[in-house]
Structures are given as C-alpha cells and as structure tokens.
Amino acid sequence: MGHQVIIFDFSLIRGLWEARVKKNKERQKKEKERLEKSSLEKIKQEWNFILECRKKGIPQSKYLKNGFVDIDEKILDMCEKAPQLQKRITLSDETNKETNKFIFQLSGEQWMEFPESLKDHTYLKEWHVSNTLIQTIPNYIALFQDLRVLELSKNQINHLPVEIGHLKNLKVLNVSFNNLKSVPPELGDCENLEKLDLSGNMEISELPFELSNLKQVTVVDVSANNFHSIPVCVLRMSNLQWLDISSNNLRDLPEDIDRLDQLQTLLLQKNKLTYLPRALVNMSKLSLLVVSGDDLVEIPTAVCESTTGLKFISLKDSPVETIVCEDTEEIIESEREREQFEKEFMKAYIEDLRERDSAPSYTTKVLFSLQL
C-alpha cells in the first residue's frame, strides 16, 4: 500500500504557529503580571527575607511578631552593624570567595567560543556554561584533571570531543538542550560519572556500548531525543536509580529490563508504547513509573495493583494535533522550548507526588499552565 502524501501550504502553517507562539507569550506575560499582584508574590518576598535573615544569623525574635513576618529592611541594617554578625558575614564571604575560585561560569549570547585564557586555569573543578552560542568544546579540556562538574546546558554544542574521556574525576555531565547527534565512545572512560544528562538534543538515536563501563551512574536523562529502544549500555548500568527516556520513539521495552534492579524512577511518557512487559513487576525498588496511556493496550495488572509502593502514573495528553514542518528553524526552536517547559512541569509534578501517600491513577494534561 502506497504512502499518502498530503500537501500543505507551509506559509499558512508557519503563520498558525507564529500566531500560537505569540498568543502563548502574551498569556505568560499576563500570568506573570497576575502573580506579581497576588498573595503568592508577598509570600515569596517574606520567604526571601527569612532566608536573608538566616544567612546573617538574625534570630527569629527580631523578624517574627505574633507569627507574622516583619519585612522591615531596618532589621537587616541594624543587625549588620553588630560586630559579631559582621565578623560572621566577613568569614562567610571569604569562604564563598575561596570556593568560587574553583568554579568557571559563562552565560550570554555574546559568547561564540570559550575564552582563550581558560586553558590557563586547569585547577578548576566546575564549569557552568549556559545560554551561549558556543558550538565546540575545546580539546584542551583534557588538561582539567580535577574537573568534577561539567554543566553545559542550553548552548549550541554540536559534538563532544574524544578528549572528554580523560576526565577521570568527572561526576556530573549535563549537555542538555544542545545540538548533539551522537556521543563518543570515550565517554565510557569517565569511570566516576554519576549523572549523565543528554536531554533535549532532539536527534540522538543511540549510545555507544562503551558507556556500559559507567558503573557509578545513578541518573540518566535522554528525554526529548530519537531513541527507538533503551540502549544496551543503559541496561548494564548496575547502579542506575533514575532513567528518563520520555519524548522519544520507543515502541517496546526490553524483556530483561528488570536487570536494572536498583532503578527507582522510570519516566516513559510521550513514546509509542503499546504494552508494558511483566518484568516491571520484578523491579522491587521501582517506586515511580510514568507512561502516556493513550496508546497502551496491555498493562500487567500487577503493575497497577503493586503492593511494593509503586506509583503508576498514566498521563493523558490533550487531543491537539502536532504539525511538524521540516526545515523550519522557528518551529524546531518552539518544540525545544516546549520540551524544556514540560520538563520543568514534570519535575515539579514528581516532587509533589513523592510527598503524597498515594498517587492518582491517571493525570489529564490539558494545558501546562497552573492556575494559582
């Protein structure tokens, strides 16, 4: 049977998307203005004031009156004049200054490459680079043998250098929401890696088998990519506790998924799964399983009625057609932004679920906007 080909006026589709994005931004602006006028903003101000008082060692009796927070700035001014508090503040500032000298931070679209002087600071332990136009990680990263944290989210990075395998002390690698299409096998040499975040790159479809060597990894996030199955290397990460492979193209799960016997959280929503394997019942430490229920026709009864404390969540997507238009950068960027927003929503949702004694059997997701 031949494929049906539907011809669209792409200019019309683009116009519809632009109107939708504009309308969404206007809605977010109005929501922000409403929140600023609401009691939520007052609560936020009070909480920030309390945090500031605690940071400066100010006793509760100074800012709490009959159970209410007095956000009088004079309280901070008066207490700052106290010599003992001033000494404590000075010591805190010195500690922060000492810590910050091991951290490299960079942000802003004016940056298209790493500063040349960076290679002279090989003692650094953390890199935090985001929201830049940087496309390439320099090869001299191999010189940073003390590097523990590599946070490079929301840039334009299109590949990881093989030199990354020299970072034997690396514990956190976050290259989410970049333009990666693959991952080098050498990453498997980072034997102390504990967290790997490749989410939001949209086009990664496989991981090298060499990543099986990452036995210390507890968190893997490969959501919003193009995986058709759970990579074999992930199934061999014996200490894995959190796996997010949502927003991919999974059609089934491996029958031996229960080899991930330490797994506690498994996020599978927004895939093309039609059934769940019974092997999930054997995963005694699994406490949260999230799927999209619209395509599922077979779910083991034992999963839904688990006596092990498993919270099984089936999300119901709103029936809105998704129009995909190739070679339209604005639509791709809009999709990326939507994935970021949904990720933040799911993070808050999961944190809320963990605080409950029980979970709803399903959640209907109509719009990702919270009415307070």
Descriptors:
single chain, about 375 residues, alpha/beta, Leucine-rich repeat, LRR (right-handed beta-alpha superhelix), 2 domains, eleven-stranded parallel sheet, two-stranded antiparallel ribbon, 8 helices, 13 strands, about 15% strand, disordered C terminus, Leu-rich_rpt
What count of domains describes the coordinates?
2
Can you tell me the CATH class of the largest domain? Alpha Beta
Q: Can you name the CATH architecture of the largest domain?
A: Alpha-Beta Horseshoe
Figure out the total of helices.
8
> pLDDT average, as an integer?
80
Assembly form of the protein: single chain
Q: Please give the share of residues in helix.
A: 25-40%
Organism: Gallus gallus (Chicken)
InterPro entries: Leu-rich_rpt, Leu-rich_rpt_typical-subtyp, LRR_dom_sf, LRR_domain-containing
Pfam family, one: LRR_8
Protein name: Leucine rich repeat containing 2
Task: Give an overview of the whole structure.
- 29% of the residues lie in helices and 13% in strands.
- The chain is α/β, with parallel strands linked by helices and 372 residues long.
- The protein has an eleven-stranded parallel sheet, with no helix packed on it. It has a two-stranded antiparallel sheet with strand order 1-2.
- It has two domains: 14-75, no CATH class; 103-316, Leucine-rich repeat, LRR (right-handed beta-alpha superhelix) (Alpha-Beta Horseshoe), CATH 3.80.10.10.
